[in-house]
Structure formats: C-alpha cells, structure tokens
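Backbones bend. To wit:
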Amino acid sequence: MTSPVFDLPPSLEVLWQLVPDLSRRMPLEQLERLLNKATRLWTSLRSLYGPETQNSYFLTIPADKIINGAFSCATWYREFDIDRQLEQTPLSTWLFNDFSSSFEENWQKSVQQYYQLDRSQLEQILVFLPFKISDRSIRSDFQDLVIQQWLKRSGKAYQKISSSELRDLVDSLTSTKAQIAPAEVEFGFLHEELSILADNFYRPINEQRRFFILNDYIVPQGALDLVEDWQARLKTIWERAEVPPIKIRYRSASLGITDDYVVYPVCIYYYQRAPYLCAFGETPRQKEPIWWYNYRFDRIRSLTELKWTDNLVPAALKQDYKLKKLRSPEDSQLLLGEALGFDFYQPKATILLRFNSDFDRRYIKNTVRHPEFKPIEISAAERSITTAKLPQNRQAQLMKILQKFPTDAYYQVASRLEENNVVMRLRSWSPNVEVILPWDLRTRMKKDLSQSWEMYRNDVD
C-alpha cells in the first residue's frame, strides 16, 4: 500500500472543512480574513504531507531541527520561508501554482458565484497576502491543526501524525465532499430592527454596496492579533460540551493594576468601541465574593485553560459547577435590561433628568434609549424629590428647579452607578440636560463642568 499524502486541491469544499465559518456568505473584510486562514492551513498541510513531486510547497525539515520527532512552529516557518517570500506572495499563487488553468478558472467562478462578488471584488481576493501576518497568527494556525488532529502537540513543539491517521483524515475529507448548503449571514446578535435592515441590504445591489455600519474600534493595531487569538481560544472552549474555567492575566486601566483572575467565560460583547469578555468569577475589584465583570480583550495579557478540580478555582465557582448553576449569556442579558449602563454588575439607582423642552422635542421624545428610560409628569418628579433622602434645604433647592421650568421635559432612568459611559452620555447632551437626582451624580456633573469651564474661562472673545 502506498503511503498516503495530502494532495487535495484547494476547492471551496476542502477550504470550508478546514475553516467551517468560511461556508457562510459574509462581507469582503471577513472573507479576506477567513480565506487567508484557510489558504494558510491548506498550504501548511501540503508542505507537511503533500507529494514530493509537482508540489511547490513540499518541505523537508532538517534533522538537526527536529528534537524527539517534534519541531517548533518557528522552525517550520523559517524553513518554509526560504526562497518563497511568504509575506509578498498573493493568494492566487498559493492556491493555483500547482494546478491547471481550468481549475483556477472554475475556482474563481465558484467563489464569485457563492459569495456574490463582482469582478473587482474577486480581483481583490486574488491579491490577498495570506502570510502577511504575525508569528502569533501562525501559532494560532498550528493550534487549529492540532484541534483538527492534523498535528500533535509535544510540549511547545509539534509532531506529524502517523500514516494511518493521515489516511483516515484525507479519506474523511474526500468522502464527505463537504456539500455545505449555502449559509446566510445571521444577524441575530444585532438589535432586532438593525438585524432586519442588515438582512435586507448586506448583499450588493447591482454590484454596489448600499449598506454600511460605522462604529468606533479603539483596539490598537498592535493588539489585533492578540485579541483574535483570545477570541479563537474562547470559541474552541465554548464548542465543548463542558466549558472549563480559565485564568486570565488582566490590566485594569481604572484601578491601575495587573493581576490574575480565575473566571468562568460566559460570552462576548462589543460595546461602543471595543470587544469585551463577559465572565463570572474573580474580578479586579474583588477576589471574593465572585461576581460578574467585563474584561476588555486588548487588556488581557494571558489566557490559560484550567480544570474544575484545580485548586486555583474559587470554591464558590466550583459549587456553581457542581450544582449546574453556572451563569449563562441570558443571565447577563437580563441584568443589562434592568438599568442603563454596560457595567451591569454595579449597583443601580434612579436618575431624574430635566431636558430643555425644544431639545427634547427635537432629539429625545419618541426615541428608544433603554427600556428603563421613561418620560414622567412633573408631579412624579416632585414626588421623587420629596421622597429622596436629602436635607430639606436641598429638597427645596431642587423643587425650585421644577417651579422655574414647569414646561420642560422630565425623565427618569434606572442606571448603574459609577458607570463612566452613562456620565459620558449625559455630558454629550450638555447644556440641554440637567441631572436633578441622585445628588451625588448631580455633584459630579457640576464638578466636571466646573473643571471644563476653568480651561476656557480666560479666553479672549
């Protein structure tokens, strides 16, 4: 029996099996990332297990670079890079170098039809640079090959699989034929109305894209590979039947500390400017009792998978695991719905606001801010003031505001305390909004505005 080799052409079906998410129709930016990854995985397999002839990527790693049958990711990359100019080589060369022009033509037609691309978009794809990435991304690729059982880990190094194991994997790829049904992009993670809009317009119309989402993304360029690694690790963890606890090393910007925290990873939120890992366990504010916390991805320094039997896991978290009471994404959603603010684990209070009537009519009235953001009658605002635990002189001061502005708009909103994002939103409405209650928040707004005034008070008109 001849030795098995990985000699499968890079058809869409094969690439889909190496990167299953690639089978979904998606925007060009996401397609670039996933198609580049699939190309790297396919090329890596061809270099390690492909035929020695008619294979531009066949690689023999020098014997002195192999220790106990294992080699490092860095060794593979250095040897593979010799005479190949990895970072400058476009996707079309990697995929079609050893195959006929008819295969290339059919591949391009399949990609263009499946992802509904115009010719200019297809040409963009063909000049993608799959290997213009960081060392960390290469290590992530090798980890994916380990997960898919194309490689084995040996400490920090890697070993090739046996001939019988290779034969089984190749046979599995060829027998499955990867008849993956065309998958629509799912937008269920968006707000319901935005999801409908995206579903209707994410495809180009007459080869023109007509729908765009503009959002801030403040994660620095140098941290993108690291963030992608953490997200890939979590995706692998969440795909298991039993999700383990993890230990993360995290730098808290607000507290100015870096420390280790053992948590149960629950879900990911993209909030305003960056992605966050929502987790339950130890937090930068307290190791005990365990509680919720949103960890910004680019501030995570390391991520280590633990076992539920590890001594590092807090006793209370182990108890949740034993009782099958581990927190879920739905739990975090319920807490988010209780009050305005992303830090849903903070105490909440009711904020009483006054808006300039004209500003309210133009920008606030008949808009949906939060389920707990509600207009109220001035009489209800009066009751809030009289029932507040404040000295009589302060209550009297606040009542004068209502008397002075009887036709203005009054709102109350349940909000998280110590939530900077809530304060930033209130600032964005200045000078058309006034915080009446709670008194501590009113005092903070007054202090912030006074400090801002000091920066401009001496300007010459």
